[in-house]
Automatic annotation (TrEMBL):
<feature type="transmembrane region" description="Helical">
    <location>
        <begin position="151"/>
        <end position="168"/>
    </location>
</feature>
<protein>
    <recommendedName>
        <fullName>G-protein coupled receptors family 1 profile domain-containing protein</fullName>
    </recommendedName>
</protein>
<dbReference type="InterPro" id="IPR019424">
    <property type="entry name" value="7TM_GPCR_Srsx"/>
</dbReference>
<keyword id="KW-0812">Transmembrane</keyword>
<dbReference type="GO" id="GO:0004930">
    <property type="term" value="F:G protein-coupled receptor activity"/>
</dbReference>
<dbReference type="InterPro" id="IPR047130">
    <property type="entry name" value="7TM_GPCR_Srsx_nematod"/>
</dbReference>
<feature type="transmembrane region" description="Helical">
    <location>
        <begin position="6"/>
        <end position="22"/>
    </location>
</feature>
<feature type="transmembrane region" description="Helical">
    <location>
        <begin position="115"/>
        <end position="139"/>
    </location>
</feature>
<dbReference type="InterPro" id="IPR017452">
    <property type="entry name" value="GPCR_Rhodpsn_7TM"/>
</dbReference>
<feature type="transmembrane region" description="Helical">
    <location>
        <begin position="29"/>
        <end position="50"/>
    </location>
</feature>
<feature type="transmembrane region" description="Helical">
    <location>
        <begin position="70"/>
        <end position="94"/>
    </location>
</feature>
<feature type="domain" description="G-protein coupled receptors family 1 profile">
    <location>
        <begin position="1"/>
        <end position="125"/>
    </location>
</feature>
<dbReference type="InterPro" id="IPR000276">
    <property type="entry name" value="GPCR_Rhodpsn"/>
</dbReference>
<keyword id="KW-1133">Transmembrane helix</keyword>
<keyword id="KW-0472">Membrane</keyword>
<dbReference type="GO" id="GO:0016020">
    <property type="term" value="C:membrane"/>
</dbReference>
<dbReference type="Pfam" id="PF10320">
    <property type="entry name" value="7TM_GPCR_Srsx"/>
</dbReference>
Length: 214
């Protein structure tokens, strides 16, 4: 899903006008199908390969059969590298536009993306990488179980990092979040601040659209 989020942002930057007019439901269905092409076979394989061994800790590396667990962890390392690659393209793209047009808003977007990438590296990326490091170092079985189970600490950081980073770095995201809270409380939202849609600020507009689509 993290890969799809990064691809979603990349699509929004490369095709901003199409992204604005595309229908949300088919778009979400397409993302769901792409994610399912990876997730469903893993679940089915894990179910078919299950055995009666006691699971010491309830997490994917130890809950899945050894061969399924190895495939899951290695494939996640590859996916995480793809996520970093996509974010590198996004940061480079926005940074180039900001440098060529001297747009302060785009520089803010770059800093925001850099924070997201740093948090991602020290959360989910580190968790999956740590799972594989224990295998590569050939830890004893008991030590390997403890090592892989403690990698969940980094994973827990990842589960909520995007929300807090966006709340911290984006005024538009904070405004959209407060608007949703007001709507849930049956209150009339405050007047939305004007957001320029000029060509020099297209990245700012696309960022807002991306966050709303999430």
């Amino acid at each position: 899903m993290t890969l799809m989020i990064s691809l979603d942002l990349l699509i929004a930057l490369l095709f901003p006008f199409w992204y604005r007019v595309c229908r949300t439901t088919p778009y979400i269905i397409a993302i769901f199908v792409l994610c399912s092409l990876y997730a469903i076979p893993i679940v089915a394989w894990g179910f078919a390969a299950q055995n009666d061994e006691v699971i010491p800790y309830c997490n994917p590396p130890l809950g899945l059969a050894p061969n399924v667990s190895q495939f899951w962890s290695v494939s996640n390392v590859i996916i995480n590298c793809l996520v970093l690659f996509v974010y590198a393209i996004i940061i480079g793209f926005v940074h180039f536009r900001a440098k060529s047009r001297a747009c302060s808003e785009q520089r803010k977007v770059v800093r925001r993306l850099q924070v997201i990438v740093i948090v991602f590296i020290f959360s989910w990326f580190m968790a999956i990488l740590g799972v594989n490091v224990g295998v590569l170092l050939r830890f004893p079985p008991i030590l390997l179980q403890l090592w892989q189970s403690n990698m969940v600490f980094f994973a827990l950081i990842c589960y909520s990092q995007t929300f807090y980073v966006c709340i911290w770095r984006s005024k538009e995201y904070r405004w959209a979040f407060m608007e949703q809270l007001q709507l849930m409380a049956c209150q009339t939202p405050q007047i939305k601040p004007d957001i320029s849609t000029s060509r020099s600020q297209v990245t700012r507009f696309v960022t807002v659209q991306t966050q709303v689509k999430k």
